[in-house]
Each structure stands twice: as structure tokens, then as C-alpha cells.
Design brief:
Elements: H1 2-15, H2 19-26, H3 36-46, H4 50-58, H5 62-71, H6 79-88, H7 92-103, H8 109-116, H9 122-138, H10 145-155, H11 161-177, H12 179-192, H13 209-222
Helix pairs in contact: 1-4, 3-5, 4-5, 5-7, 7-9, 8-9, 9-11, 10-11, 10-12, 11-12, 11-13
Length: 223
């Protein structure tokens, strides 16, 4: 059933390619050239199709891979296959969607989180920290938050950019979601100074933890 569908999906994606969108995406480490709303629309029409997802992923085409991540079914992917897909991912968007839409919903999420956080590849380690952040918010009982804070304190300053961002995101979310850890989080953020000078567009919140955490808490209180 895949063979007649795959060429149709690829042809539709090709017809939707936008050079201007590609130029913008390249600035952020991505290579897809189709508007993400249109990518989601194609995936919605296709529905869950894990075998088609595998075929789309195997093309190595950026637009096709994003559709693949949306039509995959997490429960039908083994731990080994998920690990392989992460290492094959070529762009930030592929990695982000892979973690959010596939791994975070998988029964293998926690095993992979523990494995990936210590990986030598910064991109793989960042995926592990992204999973840790997901658990900080949704399932903190599987975590040792003090251990996470110890690891962040020991490693965030020397971490490569993408990994540092993922660790900082985890740090901030611990402060936002867990009042009993908030004082330590804010002290660490102030002392370590990670992303203190990060450019922030008007209307956006700075990722600098001593600014980010209080801002998000205030917004929650205001409803």
C-alpha cells in the first residue's frame, strides 16, 4: 500500500515548496521548504501510518521527514529504531518534532532519556534533556530533581550551544513547576549567567532564568 501513496505525498510536498520559507528556515538550522501548517495538513489527511512514516523518513527529504514524524505511531517503534532515527535526524526541527511527537509519547521515553543525556553527541544529549524537561512538567515522579540540578550546575557552562539551551530549558521549567526547588534554580541562574545577554524580540520572554521564571509565574497568576 505504501508504493502508490509515497510518490503522491512527495509530489504534493514538492508542489508546496517555497524558496522564501527555505531561506528563513536555513537561518535556524533547518532545511524544510514547506510551510508547517501545510505539512500538518498533509499529515492530517494521511492519518496514522507507521509504515508510510518509515518510507518517508528513509527518503531523507526534510519536508517528507516532518510528515513522517506526524503520521508515525509511537507504540509501533522499538527503542533501537527510535535511537537510530534520532541519530539520523539532520536538522533542529527534525530533532525537536521527533522528541515531541514520537519519543515523548513512547513507552521507551524514560529509558532513552537516561541513555541519551550522557551521549557524546551534543544533539543526542540535547534530546535527552528535552525529554527530561517533558518529565519535569508532566511526570516529575520519575525524576530526581536534585540530581538534575546537580548535573546542570556541573555541566551547563561548558556545554555546546544546543545542549546548553536544552539544559537551561530544563532548569527554567524546574523553577516554574516546582516551588520547593525555585530558590535554588534562581540562585543558579543568577550565578551561572547562562543566556543573560541572549537577544530577545519584543513581546518574547528572555530565556535567562532569573527573568524567565518570574515572568512565567506572574503570567500564570494573572490568568
Amino acid at each position: 500500500m505504501i508504493r502508490p501513496v509515497l510518490p503522491d505525498v512527495l509530489a504534493e510536498l514538492e508542489s508546496l515548496e517555497d524558496p522564501k520559507a527555505l531561506a528563513i528556515n536555513l537561518r535556524h538550522g533547518n532545511t524544510h521548504s514547506v510551510n508547517l501548517t501545510k505539512v500538518r495538513g498533509i499529515a492530517k489527511q494521511l492519518g496514522a501510518q507507521p509504515e508510510l512514516a518509515r518510507a518517508l523518513w528513509a527518503t531523507r527529504q526534510p519536508n517528507a521527514r516532518l510528515v513522517a514524524l506526524l503520521v508515525a505511531r509511537p507504540k509501533q517503534f522499538s527503542e533501537e529504531e527510535l535511537d537510530r532515527w534520532l541519530r539520523e535526524a539532520a536538522t533542529n526541527k527534525e530533532r525537536d518534532w521527533f522528541v515531541s511527537y514520537l519519543v515523548a509519547k513512547s513507552v521507551h521515553a524514560d529509558a532513552l532519556r537516561k541513555c541519551w543525556m550522557d551521549d557524546e553527541s551534543p544533539d543526542v544529549a540535547a534530546a535527552g534533556w528535552a525529554l527530561a524537561t517533558d518529565r519535569v512538567v508532566k511526570k516529575p515522579e520519575v525524576l530526581d530533581l536534585d540530581d538534575l540540578l546537580d548535573r546542570i550546575e556541573a555541566g551547563i557552562q561548558a556545554a555546546p550551544e544546543r545542549l546548553q539551551w536544552a539544559m537551561n530549558t530544563c532548569l527554567g521549567n524546574i523553577g516554574i513547576e516546582h516551588e520547593d526547588k525555585r530558590e535554588r534554580v534562581l540562585e543558579m541562574g543568577l550565578r551561572l549567567g547562562i543566556l543573560r545577554d541572549h537577544p530577545t524580540s519584543a513581546g518574547c520572554v528572555s530565556p535567562y532564568v532569573p527573568v524567565w521564571v518570574p515572568t512565567m509565574l506572574r503570567r500564570r497568576a494573572e490568568g
